[in-house]
Amino acid sequence: MNGKPQKTGNDDISSDKDKLLKEISELEEQNQLLKAEITQLESFQLECDREATHLRNLAELSRDMGIYRLRADIDNPERGRVLYMSPAAKRILGVPNPMDHNSWFAYCHPDDQKLGLERQMEALRTGVFRLDARLFQNEDGSWRWVRMYAFATPNEKNEKDVFNGFVWDVTAEKRARQEAEQKSKRLRRLSYQLFQEEERQRKNIAGVLHDKIGQSLSLLRFSLAREAKTETQGSALHQCLTILDQIIAETRTLTTELYPNILRQAGLVEALRWLCSMGHEVMGIDIQFDTNSEHKDLDNDIAIFLYRTASELLTNCMKHSGAARVSLSLFEGREGLCMKMSDNGRGFVYNDEKANPGGFGLFSIREKLIYLEGRLDIETAPGAGTEITVSVPY
């Protein structure tokens, strides 16, 4: 026999008992922790229930903003199931039982259905849905404009299928905007008609100055010059001739400013070429003109508008740009007939969002172009010169 003590059955039972007691103690500790977690979860659930009740009450009491919850059909974006809709949403949409409608797109105005489906497809990708649309027709046949905004709550597959959203009735806003746009269109039409009438009056006055007053002045000068042959230089008659020559020159200048005869006789291209040469003579600035067509079949109103626009742009350039070189070109582009003026002057800060960029002249040009369905594009920056392009369909 060796000297090691021998284990007995009692020792094994004692060891197993100790292990069991230890495991029971650990289980009790885990049980206490689990109870604490359950208590926290119950408290959190209670808080969530209170918040949900509070939010639902807010949704139920809201009058101007509707709240809804919708499950989209990923396989069929045109369809979906309404999970919740507040009373305000029901009233805004004008639907007594919205839960019965699983496809709002069927109730969209025909012109808005395509946009609505595109936004729904986009929302399934991005998780955000935005749409202004005419939805659900009223009893009198009119449509109500609604604005919808919703965001997705991804499911366990990370699919964006449940949307929590808001809806507003924006019919009054849309109608007010439409009325404002219609008034703006009428004002632009009246403004262009005023421009046309002003040009007709300019043409008439220029005709009177040229055909009547101008001829009378020329006949008067012819008569005085014949009488002055017998007078000494510096006599009163010669002084009258000098003054008369100034009057005749000023009358011709005024006639040209009112309605350039070259525009009627030779067309827009030659009128623009003449305008650039006159600008060079008056201001001493190098003004280049270029064109790729004669444009002889151009509508008279368009020709006058482009001529007046070129005159305005060149005048602004000579007054404010400090440029040494200016170019004016007339060409056919994608937008129609285009006229571009560019200079190497000081440029200016331009913001396309401003209602009146660059003064009243550019504002007036832009308003006429909107009526003509044309464009005004301006590229400029301080120290970088200016490039202005006018495009009109013709």
Protein topology:
Blueprint: H1 9-61, E1 65-72, E2 80-85, H2 87-93, H3 110-126, E3 128-137, E4 143-153, E5 162-169, H4 171-228, H5 236-258, H6 261-266, H7 268-283, E6 286-291, H8 300-321, E7 325-333, E8 336-343, H9 360-371, E9 375-380, E10 386-392
Parallel strand pairs: 6-7
Antiparallel strand pairs: 1-2, 1-5, 3-4, 4-5, 7-8, 8-10, 9-10
Helix pairs in contact: 4-5, 4-9, 7-8
Overview of the molecule:
The chain has 394 residues and is of the alpha+beta class. It contains nine helices and ten strands. The chain has helices at residues 9-61, 87-93, 110-126, 171-228, 236-258, 261-266, 268-283, 300-321, 360-371, and strands at 65-72, 80-85, 128-137, 143-153, 162-169, 286-291, 325-333, 336-343, 375-380, 386-392. The strands form two sheets. It has a five-stranded antiparallel beta sheet. Strands 6-7-8-10-9 form a five-stranded mixed beta sheet, covered by helices on one side. Helix 4 runs antiparallel to helix 5, helix 4 (171-228) crosses helix 9 and helix 7 (268-283) packs parallel to helix 8 (300-321).
The helix content, as a percent range, equals: 40-55%
How would you sum up the global shape? elongated
N-to-C SSE string, H for helix and E for strand: HEEHHEEEHHHHEHEEHEE
Query: Main sheet: which strands, in order across?
Result: 2-1-5-4-3
Largest sheet, strands/sense/barrel: 5 strands, antiparallel
Number of beta strands = 10
What's the end-to-end separation, in Å? 123 Å
User: Hey, roughly how much beta strand do the residues contain?
Assistant: 15-25%
- Low-confidence spans: none
- Provide the residue-averaged pLDDT: 80
Structural class: alpha+beta
Radius of gyration over all CA atoms, rounded: 41 Å
Number of helices: 9
